[in-house]
């Protein structure tokens, strides 16, 4: 009798399938056996008279074994830091439910095939839905990542996808003189789903972690198919779809490269890892607002939002515009020494306030052009700049972590 959680071998019509028996789907027939293959995909196999099923390992036997994280002195060691999210989850084979990893062992064994290429030193920093992660959590991440980097370990951070790009951007500004890659990774679909991207994303992250990259990057599916993962620069990537596996897209820049079958092909120049100690500048001024301009935004509403802030980032229209009504209160802010940065909600392209009269009025009012930075990147950068730099305008215009492109290729 085959039970949920057993590892089985099935022979049918000259083909062989091996995998874990999964709970039966509510809409599948009683003659369908669902198994999770070694590559992470679930498939349903119709049980017929010509099926041969062999139980290779019982679930109870596997659980009874002590799950020690393996170590091979001939392999490099990668730090795996868990912060939550779908990718750091495991399947409960009693109920079929997916739970967040509660121990370092569960985190390390989320994709056990990773042990084929490296040792893993796992740590659960916290378990949060990514929408609950705050700037203080970025600071905790940065400090923890720096500890491992200064032990000469590459770092993989597992993270929920909704705000993954925010966290990776923050660490890109906070961490200096990287001696190894810092790889953020998530998954759009949980490990109990046939189309889960967790396996490939994490495996490819390990290959990137062992590369010569000296930047904070994001590794996620390059297409809806399982044919590789793009390596995105943290300050240039955005989640552009709520559910697709290739939701993450590099904007105003090509991805740094792609990883397929354990090999990396680079598209862009990148910072290579350096020698010496990693430095950390985790301070942030959180009293900065990010404001999305919309037609008809009233001056009094704008003034209420920005009142008492130490910095303001506006996602304007087109080349970086707002209505004439908002220019006087913007001028009032800049005269007080409060920086106002203009970005574009178009996302693709660059702010240019020298084309139309509105833009020139904004320049006279003292705004800082956000170049081709994404609005949220400019917001995080301004928080960091206010806490770490003296000349705010110069620092906002300076390319610090790859957030500003000199030019954009078609």
* CATH level 4 superfamily of the largest domain: L-asparaginase, N-terminal domain
Number of strands: 23
Work out the helicity level: 10-25%
CATH architecture of the largest domain: 3-Layer(aba) Sandwich
Biggest sheet, open or closed, and with what strands and sense?
8 strands, mixed
Distance linking N and C termini: 59 Å
Large-scale geometry: elongated
List the quaternary state of the chains: single chain
- Measured by DSSP, the beta-strand proportion falls in 25-35%
Total count of domains = 3
Radius of gyration based on Cα positions: 24 Å
Pick out the low-confidence regions: none
- The tally of helices reads 10
Q: Strand order of the main beta sheet, please? A: 9-6-10-12-13-14-17-18
CATH topology of the largest domain: Rossmann fold
Averaged pLDDT: 91
Which structural class fits the helix and strand makeup? alpha/beta
């Amino acid at each position: 009798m085959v039970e949920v959680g057993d590892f089985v071998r099935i022979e049918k019509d000259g083909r062989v399938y091996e995998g874990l028996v999964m709970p039966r789907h509510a809409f599948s027939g009683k003659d369908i056996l669902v198994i999770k293959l070694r590559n992470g995909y679930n498939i349903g196999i119709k049980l017929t008279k010509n099926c041969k099923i062999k139980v290779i390992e019982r679930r109870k036997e596997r659980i009874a074994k002590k799950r020690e994280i393996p170590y091979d002195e001939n392999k490099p060691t990668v730090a795996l830091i868990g912060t939550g999210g779908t990718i750091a989850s495991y399947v409960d084979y009693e109920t079929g439910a997916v739970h967040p990893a509660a121990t370092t062992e569960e985190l390390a064994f989320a994709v056990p095939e990773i042990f084929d290429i490296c040792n893993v030193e796992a740590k659960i920093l916290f378990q949060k839905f990514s929408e609950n992660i705050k700037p203080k959590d970025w600071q905790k991440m940065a400090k923890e990542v720096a500890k491992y980097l200064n032990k000469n370990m590459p770092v993989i951070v597992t993270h929920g996808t909704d705000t993954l790009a925010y966290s990776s951007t923050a660490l890109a500004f906070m961490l200096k003189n990287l001696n190894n890659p810092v790889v953020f990774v998530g998954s759009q679909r949980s490990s109990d789903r046939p189309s889960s991207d967790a396996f490939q994303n994490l495996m490819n992250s390990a290959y990137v972690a062992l590369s010569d990259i000296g930047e904070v990057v994001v590794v996620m599916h390059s297409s809806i198919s399982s044919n590789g993962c793009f390596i995105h620069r943290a300050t240039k990537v955005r989640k552009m779809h709520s559910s697709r596996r290739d939701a993450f897209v590099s904007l105003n820049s090509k991805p740094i490269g792609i990883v397929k079958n354990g090999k990396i092909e680079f598209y862009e120049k990148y910072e290579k890892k350096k020698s010496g100690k990693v430095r950390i500048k985790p301070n942030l001024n959180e009293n900065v607002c990010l404001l999305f301009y919309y037609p008809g935004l009233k001056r009094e509403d704008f003034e209420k939002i920005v009142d008492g802030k130490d910095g303001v980032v506006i996602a304007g229209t087109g080349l970086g515009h707002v209505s004439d009504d908002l220019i006087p209160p913007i001028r009032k802010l800049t005269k007080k020494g409060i920086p106002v940065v203009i970005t574009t909600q178009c996302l693709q392209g660059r702010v240019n306030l020298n084309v139309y009269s509105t833009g020139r009025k904004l320049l006279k009012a003292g705004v800082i052009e956000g170049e081709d930075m994404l609005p949220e990147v400019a917001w995080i950068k301004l928080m960091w700049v206010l806490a770490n730099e003296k000349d705010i305008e110069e620092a906002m215009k300076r390319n610090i972590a790859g957030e500003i492109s000199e030019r954009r290729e078609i």
